[in-house]
Amino acid sequence: MIKSKNLQQEETEKLKKYDLLANELGLIHRCKTRIIPYVLTWDGIKSQIELNIQSVNLKKTLESVSMEDRRGGDLILAENKRNENLHTK
What we know:
Elements: H1 7-29, H2 42-71, H3 75-88
Helix pairs in contact: 2-3
């Protein structure tokens, strides 16, 4: 995992690192090879974590709405308060 400012340098290093392997595989299998560097930055991980949290919250909200429709009552407010308490800890 790297910082965003080192992204280009890391991609270049990966291209160099896998160049020999790509050439060998191309010769063995008589095909063209292409190296696609994949570098994961902290910003990318952070964004993905935030999306996952948002997805979980949306699912819980949907469950709460469904439960309220079935039972009636004020379950959404209780669920929202519970979620707020989880995020403030």
